[in-house]
Design brief:
Blueprint (H helix, E strand, L loop, with lengths): L12 E6 L24 E4 L8 H5 L6 E6 H6 L3 E4 L12 E5 L6 H18 L8
């Protein structure tokens, strides 16, 4: 596993785990995948810290979940940022864990707008791995 970077570049990809309820029948992601209202720490996986050959194994961190991806630039475009935060529960991928930050004081309207923008960004890349039903 590569050493964690001190910071992420604007073009770095971040994965978001998707429960099947966060994917519409047409295969697109709904805005609930990035719902900022009830979750004080939305987890993301840093793609460059997950070997491409280990992507299927990475999915076992959250069995039955799929993956969507967005870039750091797309996250920052909605006024958010990403903080690398080691997560021991992610096992060998602990160093690849990060969280969305910067929305603690936002209104629900602004959180919903950001969730929709991130949904649209994720749909622009397509679902990386569909979730199990």
């Amino acid at each position: 596993m590569p050493a964690p970077p001190s910071q992420l570049s604007s073009q770095d990809f971040l994965f978001r785990f998707l429960h099947w309820t966060r994917v519409k029948p047409d295969g697109t992601v709904n805005s609930g995948a990035f719902g900022l209202r009830g979750d004080p720490e939305i987890s993301l996986g840093v793609e460059k810290l997950i070997p491409e050959t280990a992507l299927d194994h990475f999915c076992s961190v959250k069995p039955g979940h799929g993956l969507a991806k967005v870039t750091m630039d797309q996250i920052q475009a909605v006024g958010l940022n990403v903080q690398l935060e080691r997560e021991p529960e992610w096992g060998e991928f602990a160093e690849a864990h990060a969280i969305l930050v910067g929305y603690a004081g936002w209104t629900n309207k602004r959180k919903d707008e950001a969730a929709r923008a991130l949904r649209d960004a994720a749909n622009g890349w397509g679902v990386v791995r569909p979730p199990a039903r």
